[in-house]
Amino acid sequence: LADSNRSQVIIIGAGFGGIKAARALRKAPVDVTVIDRNNYHTFQPLLYQVATAGLEPGDIAYAIRGIFRKQNNVAFRLGEVTDVSLADRFLWMSDGARLPYDYLIVASGAETNDFGVEGVSEHAFGLKTLDDAVRIRNHILFQFELCNSRPELVDEGALTFVIVGGGSTGVEVAGALMELFDHVLRKDFQRSTIEPAQIILVEQGARLLPSFNDRQSGFALKKLERWGVKVELGCSLARVESGGCVLESGKSIDTKTVIWAAGVRGASPRGFDSVPVLSGGRFQIRANLSLESHNEVFVIGDLAGAQVDETFLPQTALPAIQEGRHAGCEIRAAVRGKKSRPFKYRDLGQMATIGRHAAVVELPGGLKLRGYVAWLAWLLLHLIKLIGFRNRASVLVNWVWNYWTFDRTARLIFGHPVDRNSASK
Ligand SMILES: Cc1cc2nc3c(=O)[nH]c(=O)nc-3n(C[C@H](O)[C@H](O)[C@H](O)COP(=O)(O)OP(=O)(O)OC[C@H]3O[C@@H](n4cnc5c(N)ncnc54)[C@H](O)[C@@H]3O)c2cc1C
């Protein structure tokens, strides 16, 4: 229960950053309210596996109330924060509630960035939430069912799957989709249905996985091409339409599936108009992660413009986790009258998986791994980082099952996906 003598801390968002911040306040004499529009935390790095029927949504989501069950100074509130009044130190929720705060941590993450490309928000699939992932899974499986009964739809692009963005997410989706088609759906459907299926990965830069070194990028390209993914490098998307998409070169592709994995931008409630917005929709912040004009407001994770050597930290989980911990420690120090410290980022490297037995890992100090060992390291790290023993056990069982049986039990179509083929006519 809130104690009116204690400082009130509100954390917007129970993602990687928000959870870590609340945990860092475990022993602080404050009352913490964590607000999220979902009652669960999503482990976004494995969203692509839900989208490609490798895992169930429940495997990568964890109830927020369960996370804080044993932390007495945290209360959870389900809902959408719509506005923040920095001057008056309160925020509004979509249900009309008005909550005052002494300290605020904005950990609201990011949203899909369409970079102004026409038709993306209307016709492409984003991959940012569990709903997005399930929508993609439903849609892809539905395309095969449709083509099974109406083979003429293949000529209209029903089995052409375009992925835009050759970063980690795009590469992971392309590799996992190819595995789904080749190992699983090939056994489910007749050859005439599965053979025409094609995956096109479009990347505007000269290589895949641009944040990795050249050889790692080359490895990813070689693997995907060997598995049958058509990779279009140096090629950007001009627009997406209901029945297809058009590249800047003028080439048009008939497709009912454009998966947009080209990037994100920081997302926040309203009320931050006075805060300068930097590249990637990130908020300009001070060295201790607070706002220049309001030292009681901290911004962390994908929304934070934290930099090392004048380079922005990537919008990935590791900076969010470390920033969350730092913001929590800063508030703890402030209520105890201790001095503020600048945030220091500890680089632990980066990794991306391409598919079965193929991943790339780069560690600080220059060590680079690729192939089987990197893939094992990727599996292990993601398993460890999942929240909750049940989720870890369930993901492990699913992975072992998928690996040995070449099967995907999660290839289920929920609800009634829209038949985009008839819609486009
Ligand atoms: C498909 C995909 C794959 C990824 N793969 C990797 C990877 O392999 N490795 C890696 O390190 N990173 C990866 N990332 C990036 C990583 O997930 C993010 O950088 C990280 O989640 C950012 O943490 P965060 O706390 O800033 O925000 P998030 O984890 O996104 O959390 C934000 C939370 O805020 C809530 N929220 C937002 N706005 C409001 C509001 N107005 N009211 C209430 N609640 C709100 C949201 O519901 C959400 O729970 C991936 C991301 C995606 C989408």
* Beta strands, count: 27
**Helix share bin:** 25-40%
Span between termini = 57 Å
Low-pLDDT windows of residues: none
The 3D shape can be described as globular
Report mean pLDDT, rounded to a whole number. Answer: 95
Give the C-alpha Rg.
Answer: 22 Å
Q: Strand order, biggest sheet?
A: 5-2-1-9-22
| Structural class by SSE content | alpha/beta
Strand content: 15-25%
Bound molecules: flavin-adenine dinucleotide
Number of helices: 12
The biggest sheet amounts to: 5 strands, parallel
List keywords for this structure.
single chain; 425 residues; alpha/beta; five-stranded parallel β-sheet; 12 helices; binds flavin-adenine dinucleotide
Structure description:
- With 425 residues, the chain is of the alpha/beta class.
- The strands form 9 sheets. Strands 5-2-1-9-22 form a 5-stranded parallel sheet, covered by helices on one side. A 5-stranded parallel sheet has the order 11-18-12-13-14. Strands 6-7-8 form a 3-stranded antiparallel sheet, with no helix packed on it.
- β16 and β17 form a beta hairpin.
- α1 packs parallel to α9.
- Flavin-adenine dinucleotide (FAD) binds next to α1, β2, α2, α6 and α9.
Topology at a glance:
Blueprint: E1 7-12, H1 16-24, E2 30-36, E3 40-42, H2 47-51, E4 61-63, H3 64-67, E5 74-78, E6 81-85, E7 90-93, E8 98-100, E9 103-106, E10 110-112, H4 120-123, E11 125-126, H5 130-149, E12 160-164, H6 168-188, H7 191-194, E13 198-203, H8 214-227, E14 230-233, E15 237-241, E16 244-247, E17 252-254, E18 257-260, E19 264-266, E20 277-278, E21 282-283, E22 297-299, E23 307-308, E24 311-312, H9 317-335, E25 350-355, E26 358-362, E27 368-371, H10 372-385, H11 389-405, H12 420-423
Parallel strand pairs: 1-2, 1-9, 2-5, 9-22, 11-18, 12-13, 12-18, 13-14
Antiparallel strand pairs: 3-4, 6-7, 7-8, 10-19, 15-16, 16-17, 20-21, 23-24, 25-26, 26-27
Helix pairs in contact: 1-9
